[in-house]
Specification:
Blueprint (H helix, E strand, L loop, with lengths): L2 E2 L1 E3 L2 E3 L3 E7 L2 E11 L2 H19 L3 H17 L1 H12 L3 H22 L5 E4 L5 E9 L2 E5 L7 H12 L3 E5 L5 H12 L8 E3 L4 H10 L5 E5 L2 H13 L3 E5 L5 E4 L5 H9 L14 E5 H16 L19 H16 L3 E4 L16 E4 L16 E7 L2 H9 L3 E2 L1 E5 L3 H10 L4 E4 L15 E2 L2 E2 L9 H4 E9 L1
Parallel strand pairs: 1-5, 8-9, 8-11, 9-10, 11-12, 13-14, 13-19, 14-17, 16-17, 19-20
Antiparallel strand pairs: 2-3, 4-5, 6-7, 7-23, 12-22, 15-16, 18-21
Helix pairs in contact: 1-7, 2-4, 3-4, 3-6, 4-5, 9-10
């Protein structure tokens, strides 16, 4: 079995320990052993990044664009191969894995352009004889801690802007899915960066991740993951006055009004089960008006029962396995808890047997739930949704906003009046009308409010608000 090392200071360095990476579609398939980093390894990476900081910060915008374009070119060429690894490692379908590889390529291509568009401002002063220039400089060394569910796409949308704006990077991917991050690091290692400008340290979040958050040479931390971990990162960063950017959980509502097109509403609801429901933007609360409720539930139940659950690399598979045994056990606990609270399990929620031993779970749908049930308060992060019946639009909006999260919200309606009102009044960072609550396009900001997000937005030109420091200069001729 091949052992995959860390990448630090322009060199591939083995660790003293390694962790096996298993395919959740086939537990007999070990993808490889990946380095387990300790605090000393993380410190080595942070020091390498700090040493490379002056050289990369001084690089021309064309130099930065060329590096990002080189990475994008290879991702485009190898999207099918890399997409297969993404699916094999995480369990998302082959179409989803390939789509993620393509998106990563598009992100690097976009930020190649952003590297040369990092404009400042020239302003007149209130005082005679002075000119003002407002410019942006790199933050410095950024630590990137990324999750297992989009193990290529999210690293891409953090790494690409960090490099585009002249920062040096230490990336700590999720320990469950390090393989895709390793391939991306290998591509970046050949793209023309100075040694130390990009570093990869793999391992457990409690050890390697915490060491990265705490290191004094790391000027900023960008994290995507759970609320509990995000809170700890925030506290650690504040203690040493480091910048931090957090993308955390979601409990996103999809409101379905009586006048909604049923087929559109169904497609929006079914999107909650993509990536086996392991998406922070999934619409796990289906807030449905009573006039369309029964037709909607009946049709959605039929569609869910027809979903083909199977091996991620089987082209016929429509939903792959849950990522690992711990996440599967968590999903089953939420399902059992919802039944105990009085929710009705209409379909799914049971283990699925397949020829290969894997973490297969039938997509679950609950009805007769209330907003206060645990299934509607906490993020399950699995193929589980719950229907909440409401009387009218006003109740639907109140239920949609009745959550500590605020990442995404959606509404299905033919009413422009209700659509516009929902856009203005839904307490979420991203609002969709007659469209699934999926991730945002790469050229627009991604993020939420309440306990879903903290700090500047990710993606698009808004990413520079985290990755750069604004400097105001006064010049007298």
């Amino acid at each position: 079995m091949k052992t995959y090392p860390n990448y630090i200071g322009g060199e591939w360095l083995a660790a003293s320990d390694a962790r096996p990476n298993f395919n959740p579609s086939d537990l007999g398939d070990c993808i490889g052993d990946y380095a387990e980093s300790d605090a000393a390894t993380v410190a080595q990476a942070a020091e390498a990044a700090a040493a490379a900081r002056p050289r990369w910060a001084a690089a021309t915008v064309q130099d930065r664009a060329n590096v990002l374009d080189t990475v994008a070119d290879e991702l485009f060429r190898r999207k099918d191969e890399i997409g297969t690894l993404v699916s094999r490692e995480e369990g998302k379908t082959l179409a989803e894995g390939t789509g993620e590889a393509l998106r990563a390529a598009q992100i690097f291509r976009f930020y190649a352009g952003e590297a040369v568009r990092n404009a400042g401002e020239a302003l007149g002063s209130l005082r005679a004889g002075l000119d003002i220039e407002v410019t942006r400089e790199p933050l410095g060394v950024v630590g990137l801690v990324t999750p297992w569910n989009f193990q290529l796409g999210i690293p891409a949308w953090k790494i690409a802007p960090a490099l585009a704006y002249g920062n040096c990077v230490v990336h700590k991917p999720a320990e469950l899915t390090p393989g895709s991050a390793w391939v991306l690091a290998e591509i970046i290692s050949r793209a023309g960066l100075p040694p130390g400008a990009f570093n990869l340290v793999m391992g457990a979040g409690a050890r390697a991740g915490q060491a990265l958050v705490d290191h004094p040479l790391v000027d900023g931390i960008s994290f995507t993951g759970s609320v509990a971990v995000g809170e700890k990162i925030a506290a650690s960063a504040v203690r040493r006055m480091a910048r931090f950017q957090l993308e955390m959980g979601g409990k996103n509502p999809l409101v379905v009004l009586d006048d909604a097109d049923l087929d559109t509403a169904l497609e929006c609801a079914l999107a909650a089960y993509t990536v086996t429901g392991q998406r922070c933007t999934a619409s796990t609360r289906l807030v449905v008006m009573q006039g369309i409720h029964d037709r909607f539930v009946k049709a959605l139940t039929e569609r869910l029962r027809a979903i083909r659950v199977g091996h991620a690399l089987d082209p016929a598979t429509q939903m792959g396995p849950v990522v690992d045994e711990n996440q599967l056990a968590k999903d089953l606990r939420y399902i059992e808890g919802a039944v105990r609270e009085g929710a009705r399990l209409v379909t799914g929620g049971t283990l699925v047997e397949r020829p290969q031993r894997g973490h297969y779970l039938a997509p679950a749908l609950f009805t007769e739930t209330t907003p206060q049930m645990r299934i509607n308060r906490e993020e399950v992060f699995g193929p589980v949704t719950a229907v909440i019946r409401v009387r009218d639009y006003e109740e639907a909006l109140a239920v949609a906003n009745d959550t500590e999260f605020g990442l995404a919200a959606g509404i299905c309606t033919a009413s422009l009046k209700h659509a516009r009102h929902f856009l203005r009044n839904a307490q979420a960072g991203m609002v969709m009308v007659n469209a699934p609550t999926g991730g945002a396009d790469y050229h627009v900001p991604f993020g939420g409010r309440k306990r879903s997000s903290y700090g500047p937005r990710e993606q698009g030109s808004y990413a520079r608000d985290f990755h750069t420091i604004v400097k105001t200069g006064y010049l007298r001729a």
